[in-house]
Amino acid sequence: MLGAAMAPAPKLYSQPGSHPCAAVEAALSLKAIEYERVNLLPLTPILVGMLRYGSRRVPGMRVGSERVAGSRAIMRRLDELVPEPPLYPPPGSPRRAEVLEAERWGDEVFQSVPRRIIDVAFLRRPAAMETYAGDSKLPLPVGLLRPTLPLTARLMARWNGASDAAAQADVRALGGHLDRIDAWIADGLLGQAEPNARALIEKRLAAGLTRYFPPMAGEVEAGVLPAQWFEDGAGS
User: Fold this and answer.
1) What is the pLDDT of residue 51?
2) By C-alpha distance, which of 140, 27, 159 is closest to 84?
3) Cβ contacts of residue 81 below 8 Å, gap of 6+?
4) From CA 59, how far away is CA 81, in angstroms rounded?
5) Is 206 a residue whose pLDDT tops 90?
6) Strand (E) positions, the chain?
7) Which of 33, 64, 99, 181 lies 20 to 30 Å from 212 when distance is taken between CA atoms?
8) Which residues are within 8 A (CB) of 26 and not within 5 positions of it... i.e. 6 or more apart?
9) Which of 76, 28, 26, 30 is nearest to 199 (CA)?
10) Considering only CA atoms, which of 74, 129, 125 is closest in space to residue 103?
11) Helices 164-186 and 112-124: angle between axes, nearest 10 degrees
12) The overall pTM is greater than 0.90
């Protein structure tokens, strides 16, 4: 198989619970590309990411000496490395521009919404961060990281611009975001038998998109975020 024969195997720099990293892993699986996953601790990409793969955020990838940063760039590089099955409609296809726009919106707009919401949940319940490690092999045992979780939560929130006000605004805007995703699904842009590069995970019609991904670890118990935030935010 072409993917299995690729040498050297790509090295994916990732973090447990990261949805962009999960999207890249789904693409690697779809193309049957063997790869090595390197799990980074929270905030460590700020310190080592530029050196290893050219960004202070995950995901990042190394293919030999080549560095590729960000899920969009990685998706395009994977299509170059292993063209079949493609992640994007072919150039000149009527749907290509629409898929690229959905990808841009998911990366630049929607991606930060769950990130800010979960960061605020971690501020309120730092211990929940531990559940997102799942069975991932981290550089340090989770037990040693436990005392640092409150500080890590504060630093992550600052890095991502997360606050109660920002998260509450994100929750209120969530209905509109989901309407857009549902419309793309209804139009056939997302949710087909063969996934394209931006399979977004959420509820309503978008719940069916979770079939492209393995179950992700991590849970924040009910009640950590105020219930009133969701009264006007989740939409119908």
Assistant:
1) 95
2) 27
3) 6, 10, 31, 33, 63
4) 18
5) no
6) 11-14, 36-39, 60-63, 66-69
7) 64
8) 195, 199, 212, 213
9) 26
10) 74
11) 140
12) no
* Model pLDDT, residue 235: 46
Report how far residue 129's alpha carbon sits from residue 103's, in angstroms, rounded to the nearest whole number. Answer: 28
Report angle CA 149, 142, 74 to the nearest 5 degrees. Answer: 85
pLDDT (tens digit, 9 = 90+) per residue, 40-67? Answer: 988 999 999 999 999 999 999 999 999 9
| Cβ–Cβ < 8 Å for 13, 52 | yes
Distance, CA of 26 to CA of 33 (rounded, Å):
10
- Count of CB atoms within 10 A of residue 85's CB? 12
Tell me the residue length of the chain.
236
Report whether 204 contacts 178 (CB < 8 A). yes
Residue 44 CB coordination number (10 Å): 16
CA distance 182 to 202: 10
Asked if 160 contacts 51 with a C-beta cutoff of 8 angstroms, the reply is: no
Q: Are 21 and 44 in contact (CB under 8 A)?
A: no
Residues 87-104 have pLDDT tens digits of: 999 988 889 999 999 999
CA 214 to chain centre: 13
Tokens 């962009």 -> residue? 20
167/115 Cα distance (integer angstroms): 9
